[in-house]
Amino acid sequence: MQIPIKMIAVILAVSAEAAFASCTANDDNPSGQAVESRYVPLAPDYSDPMMWITEDGDADGTGADVFYVVSTWEDDWTTADGKVCHYADVWNPNHRAHMAELELNKVAAYMSPGNRFYAPFYRHTTIQAFMTNSEDTVYQRTRLSMDDVRKAFDLFQAQRDQSRPLIIAGFSQGGLAVVELLKHIDDETYSQLAAAYVLGYKVTKADMAACSHIRPAEGETDTGVTICYNTVKDVKYVLPLIAGSDICINPVNWRTDATPATLHDTITITVAPEYHVLVATNYSASEYPPFRGFLNVGDIHSCEPWLYSECLAKNISVRARAWREKQTSVGIRLSSR
Fold first, then answer.
1. Residue 29 has pLDDT above 60, yes or no
2. Per-residue confidence (pLDDT) for residue 96, from 0 to 100
3. In the prediction, which pLDDT does 337 show?
4. I need a surface site. Which of 6, 95, 152, 167 has the fewest CB within 10 A?
């Protein structure tokens, strides 16, 4: 897919404020509810290549198209005139650098080989929304963020080669975006889905009841399925807001039961079926220090896209290949009629 270059006048206005108090639904206030005076950054223009991280590692054209959604890298911040912003600003080079250098480039390093990798910058909701531990606050604030992701995905989907298998993946807030994208896509797009990966976020019974496109993975090779996991040191550390999931699969052995798997020779990863989380033993996770008493305090939230990176890279290839084989089989059956 080539994202066309479009010269746009709005680049000249990226520092302009978009603060308002409004009851009118629009791109910056999709709920249409009254909001306090605040700063809302300018919306992304996804026809501008600057709004994307892309890598083409599919030299022979046999891989997948990977659409990846970044997690949360910004705190609430304040404008010069004192207005609080609850969102990343995609036109701010520092905010884009946080998303790219701290996550997207590193994920692309293991997801792009053999595939085409696309990741949009979006106005992700700041960490403070999640630190409230309020489902309502997260839902209300992330509506704008999810709208950005849907618009980015729609452009990506319209321009990509739809004969190729589709992978949708995301970490943390990006995992939430994957769930919302599965609710958003139509049946034709779903038929192109090799797999969706919800890394470090939950998939609930309510999500599955609301969307027939969310089918829990049962093994290593099934297609059109959703892979979901959250890692803790003990089930007492499950954070319901993020990890209160109703599905889980072990990305090391691709089991949904309590069969343990060994990772990196010494770490044991086991599904706790009653809690739908992964329990890691013999793993200090010292590289992920506690974050403000909220994350990495017995949960190991920050490890999700990194600890299992080799397993994920391999599985993307496996499921993409299984999807292609399935399409070939269907084509042969149809041609023999």
1. no
2. 98
3. 58
4. 6
Residue pair 88/74 in contact by the 8 Å Cβ criterion? yes
SS (H, E, C) the chain: CCCCCCCCHHHHHCCCCCCECCCCCECCECCCCCCCCECCCCCCCCCCHHHEEEEECCCCCCCCEEEEECCCCCCCEECCCCCEECECCCCCHHHHHHHHHHHHHHHHHHHCCCCEEEEECCCCECHHHHHCCCHHHHHHHHHHHHHHHHHHHHHHHHHCCCCCCEEEEEECHHHHHHHHHHHHCCHHHHCCEEEEEEECCCCCHHHHHHCCCCCECCCCCCCCEEEEECEECCHHHCCHHHHCCCCCCCCCCCCCCCCCEEECCCEEEEEECCCCEEEEECCCCCCCCCECCCECCCECHHHHHHHCHHHHHHHHHHHHHHHHHHHHHHHHHHHCC
The model's pLDDT over 111-147, given as tens digits with 9 standing for 90+, comes to: 999 999 999 999 999 999 999 999 999 999 999 999 9
Whether the CA torsion 117, 271, 273, 298 is positive or negative: it is negative
Structure tokens given for 12: 């000249």
Q: Please tell me the distance from the alpha carbon of residue 276 to that of residue 272, in angstroms, as a whole number.
A: 6
CA neighbor of 85 nearest in space, from 97, 71, 70, 75: 75
Comparing 161 with 333, the larger pLDDT belongs to 161
The tokens describing 125, both together, are 């909701």
Predicted local distance difference test score (pLDDT) of residue 12: 28
Length of the chain as a residue count:
337
Tell me phi and psi for residue 201, to 5 degrees: -150, 175
Dist. CA 214–CA 142, nearest whole Å:
20
Segment 65-115, tens digit of pLDDT: 999 999 999 999 999 999 999 999 999 999 999 999 999 999 999 999 999
Interaxial angle between packed helices 173-184 and 135-159, expressed in degrees from 0 to 180 and rounded to the nearest 10 = 60
Tell which residue, 63, 310, 251, has the closest CA to residue 166.
63
Q: Which residue, among 236, 237, 230, has the nearest Cα to 251 in the 3D structure?
A: 230
pTM of the entire predicted model: 0.89
pLDDT number for residue 312: 98
